[in-house]
Amino acid sequence: MSIRLLPPTLVNQIAAGEVVERPASAVKELVENSLDAGATRIEVVLVEGGQALISVTDDGSGMGPDELALAVERHATSKLPDDDLVHVGHLGFRGEALPSIGSVARLTLTSRARGAAEGWSLSVEGGAKGHPVPAAISAGTRVEVRDLFYATPARLKFLKAARTELSHAIDTLERLAMAHPAVGFFLSDGSRALVKLAAEKADDLAKARLSRLAAIIGRDFHDNAVPIDIERDGVRLTGWAGLPTYSRGSSGHQYLFVNGRPVRDRLVVGAVRGAYQDVMSHDRHPVVALFLELSPDAVDVNVHPAKAEVRFREAGAVRGLIVSGLRHALAGAGHRAATVSHGGVGWRPGGGGHPASFAQAVRAQAPLGTGLAESLPGLELPPSAPAAEYCPQPPEQAYPLGAARAQLHDTYIVAETADGLVIIDQHAAHERLVLERLRAGLTEGGVKRQMLLLPDVVELGEAAAARVAEAAPVLAELGLVVESFGPGAVVVREIPALLGACDVQALVADLACDLAEWGEALKLKERMVDICATIACHGSVRAGRRLSVPEMNALLRQMEQTPLSGQCNHGRPTHVALGLADIEKLFGRR
Q1: For the segment 204-262, what is each residue's pLDDT rounded down to a tens digit?
Q2: Parallel, antiparallel or unpaired: strands 128-129 and 41-47
Q3: Which has the closest alpha carbon to 230: 350, 336, 316, 327?
């Protein structure tokens, strides 16, 4: 067959297949045009999930009749004034959305430029373009898309139910709204208002974004997220990271923005997963809203037809910034865990009326090693809340985690605080403390060891014993000294000093299973945190162990000083807090 040029209508339909996948795709393109036009209010109407009608109305700069005619031509745009595809400063720039939509639907553009005496309207139906005619409209633009994909009926088979398509469109609009809090966004299905987001008036962009995020994700996110603001080599990362215990069953609540553009980038998603890997279970996903700002020439936004993905020039540096920014923010959260209700439940730094001098008060206690908590491995701080000779400041229950009052079922510690109570899972809490001390030992040059009076021989089987013996150099850095001991066995000569009396047999057996799952020992350096977690689990106080009041208080005091102690090594909360106001509500006092 001879080579020929395809007709323009078919060319536009092919482009539409790349740009307009479903109604939500059309909504994204049209709303981005409104934002680029300087709109402060955008109203969207979707009928039958967008298949029957998509209407987007804005109060942007508007267009005259000549611009209307150009707007529906392929590769016509006002957003590349210097023909520079490197320094892209707008959301939309390809100039393909309107002609692509017009090639597969019935498209009507109605617009009035600011200051113009009249408005104009132009229609495109199945690729056939009409002529501008006068129309009544206030300043701004209204785009109506009717009968989406009527010109390409095969595409209709791939659309989901109207409710599903509507949910995709709402998600698309909300992601754009997160990045542009100064703009009001409204969406209805023709009879019901489904999205009502008034423009945020806060002068501070960070405050405006957080308020908008709370309106979309929920007030819980506002109460259970920590701020991020870090800059390195011209790249700035801001936003909020949900506490590890405030997690979801899917990654759908991870909102990522690059220079104000919502993206779904695998590099960023992987960086988020890496940052949370040692504080969250593998089947849970964090809730984050991250805003990356960098020079336009450091990121390529032209790698995906729908502009959903980007490519960074220095991908490794960006990933490292995200990981370090998230980890620093989470570490700064201290022992915080997710709140259990909206009403201020759970202690938060700087809130709840606690004195600002708590950290100093804890540090002002007696020197380490007073012997009061010697029976509980890894806890060396004096256990009781401040006595007069140590800290003449607040009463003991005014400490963030309060004072231990009871132990329930030999598993849970109940502590009284100044404004409620806290319930602590003793095993989960101590497990996190041991893990953090192991990690601290690594950074300080090695974990302290204690020699076993009688070396412990562990029978594993030949394959498992070989894996453990091969991993011996890495395990030694963590204070666990093992050697091969004939076929199918290893001998343990030293263990980390902070473990105290632990079940060495069970610990080595679990490590052998981990090694089998992870693969070759040459990659063990990358799994150091996982190895630490396994050791910490065996070195922590178990559920079912009776603790004395001093031991319980020692655990609370050290939790208050330990980063990330709000969740155990598997991402579960170590404690929950219940405010006095919530208790009074339960008993009908409020």
Answers
A1: 888 999 999 999 988 888 888 899 999 998 899 999 999 887 888 778 889 999 988 88
A2: unpaired
A3: 327
- E strand or H helix at 586, and its extent? helix 580-586
Q: How far apart are CA 567 and CA 563, in angstroms?
A: 10
Assess contact for 319 and 290: CB atoms under 8 A.
no
At 302 the pLDDT is: 66
Provide DSSP, 15-42.
Answer: HHHHH-SSHHHHHHHHHHHHHHTT-SEE
pLDDT tops 70 at residue 93: no
Who contacts 23 (Cβ-Cβ below 8 Å, separation ≥6)? 46, 49, 50, 51, 54, 148, 159, 165, 166, 168, 169
Give the phi and the psi of residue 441 in degrees, each rounded to 5: -60, -40
Helix segments in 334-420, DSSP class H:
358-363
Q: Find the mean pLDDT for residues 139-152.
A: 90
Q: How does DSSP classify residue 527?
A: G
% pLDDT > 70, the chain: 80
Yes or no: say if 475 and 531 are a contact pair by the CB < 8 Å rule. Answer: yes
205 in Cβ contact with 191 (< 8 Å):
no
Within 10 angstroms of residue 31's Cβ, the number of other Cβ atoms is 27
